[in-house]
Amino acid sequence: MENRTSERTSILKALLGDANASINSYLDVGCGDGSISLEVSNALAIPNSYLTDVVQPNKTMEGFFLTDPSNIHFPLEDGSIDLITCFVSIHHFTDPNAMFSEIMRVLKVGGYLFIREHDVEPSDSDTATYLDVMHHLFPDPYYPCFFRSKATLRRSFSKSMSMIGYHDYPEPYNPQHLYHELWVRLRGRDSAIELDKNDYVRPLDLVPWVKSHVKEVTKLATKTGTKRQYSDIARFIPKIKSINELYSFLHE
Question: What CATH number matches the domain at 2-185, 3.40.50.300, 1.20.58.340, 3.30.70.20, 3.40.50.150?
Fold first, then answer.
């Protein structure tokens, strides 16, 4: 957890540069258990921090509020937030336009949106399948995934914001196709961010894909916190009839 937190913090601080000194309010959308977002807030010395997710965490966290995905509304004033972060959460937005409508409502003109996301090209069903399998195997709650390319998001964001910072990882060391972008909201621009909710990359059938990528999935499975040995996982994969069966084998 410490490495994940320090990595996110260092990337965000580098992209913000001197702007960090002017940030007094912060919202993390899709915070999970809140550990990373709270550490980021502390590391950047932001006095007013808020966190939200669609699932109630198992612990009490100051500044947390629950978001209903069927009726998205943040209990925050218009234009009240200096910095909003989405750490690999955009691909879980079931209604991206409603979520971005709220994000833009509370983000100040001149405020910053920082995203960490997967870049999945429209024709790259293989990567979409790998990422979907990954989401099934880790012991976090599984949420539906809607993977898009960074080009798709950029086209939508650029109507109301300007990208001022970018960071990614060198290939071939980035199997998740992760990248980071920092955007600033512009005055006088359309505040709407519109995405076609059906315009995302569909994964292939998971079980056949897993059985044809035994080495890749076995390597991924060893990183899920399982106590199973590499060789045992590799022998088990050809027998599975569902992803849930593989998950149970890893974490029972």
Answer: 3.40.50.150
